[in-house]
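[agent] plan:
  1. take the single chain provided in the ticket
  2. run structure prediction with default settings
  3. attach structure tokens to the ticket
  4. add a short note for the reviewer (M.T.)
[agent] executing step 1
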Amino acid sequence: MAIVLVGIGGAFGAVFRFQLGRIISAKQKSAFPYGTFIINITGAVLLGILTSINAGNSAYLLLGDGFLGAYTTFSTFMYEGFVLFQGKEKLNALIYILASLFLGIIGYIAGFVIGNYLLYRL
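[agent] step 2 finished; step 3 output follows
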């Protein structure tokens, strides 16, 4: 059953990431990979919320491992950072990589705090 939950969540997460990435990319005129950046940061926040509310194992498999695992993308993050470095966009590459890591950690912590607030205050 775990494989089915992860597979279903992953299918939805991958499609959602693909569509959202296309929408964001269509609106920007910069070499900076805003789509992947926004997707990875929002994924970190959502994972923080999910883990803080202690969702059951099935919900975590579906949403955490499945949906958010496919929604966020480390491989695209690495690829886009590497392309920026190769394309004489070294400052953008450095900003992209460091900001993604820093804001990803901050986003996860913020999501965890938000989830705890929602769990214990509402």
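[agent] step 4 note for reviewer: The helical segments are 2-26, 34-52, 57-71, 74-86, 90-121.
[agent] ticket updated
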